[in-house]
Amino acid sequence: MDFAIQFIINVLSLGGAYxxxxxxxxxxxxxxxxxNFAYGELIMVAGYTMHLVGGSPLPWLVMAAVGVxxxxxxxxxxxxxxxxxxRAKSVTAVLITSFAFSTLLQNAALLxxxxxxxxxxxxxxxxxxVMIAGVSTxxxxxxxxxxxxxxxxxxxWLMQKTVLGIAMRxxxxxxxxxRMLGVPANLIISSAFAISGFLAGVVGILWIGxxxxxxxxxxxxxxxxxxxxxxxxxxxxxxxxxxGGFILAFIDTTLNYTLSQDLLKFRDAFTFSLVILILLWRPxxxxxxxxxxxxx
Length: 296
Description:
By secondary structure, the protein is mainly α. It has helices at 2-32, 39-52, 60-83, 91-112, 139-161, 163-173, 175-180, 185-211, 220-233, 238-258, 261-264, 267-281, and strands at residues 118-119, 129-132, 135-138, 213-214. The relative contact order is 0.20.
């Protein structure tokens, strides 16, 4: 029984973080039909911002808010620097500028801060544990689950009940038709990048809460996780991205519990093998989403 409770908590905690990561990536892809390869660096920006303001007398919650805001600013900068100038050009041009902006942010961190991991201030609650049904559970896992539930609920409300959300869903379904009906293209795209940056900032805090440090390459693993989750769930489906995040967390947690120590270092190989099997069964992902494949 204790094992089952611990397993469920681990899947929900890891899946919540994965789902938020995937949601930020698929939100931009749904409208532009392009992967934002600088998405992982938004997490890095949030982490380094908290590191830099760590010596100030500001309360931790204010530091975290500043980190999230800077991730949103970096997300908007990605749109203005890497996507908007070449948006009407070829897909290759946009992908190259996306990679270039990602490398630019990493090199800026290497040059102006440090190539070594830097500590990030975290409140004591991140290192505390709580007993749930007789199982000792890290508070950071509970925080991650609560944050994921709240943010996924807010995101669902935003997309279903607000003018902005309806316009974004219309743009993701048929961008050209949405523009003809008066939906402001640049505002919708910028809003998608800002929301993506917000999700990356929150995920950055939750991710760094597990390791306690930030380094220039910290964004690579979350980017890969978000991309794999989107591929599993469906690159054009917001619900699919969330589902893919929880499925990937279930696979990772199951492998962590079942593989021996000798085989655990090959966990990624087992994970990718299972992902390939899923894609052989459903090449377009588990949920297809809007049918339009037109890119703006």
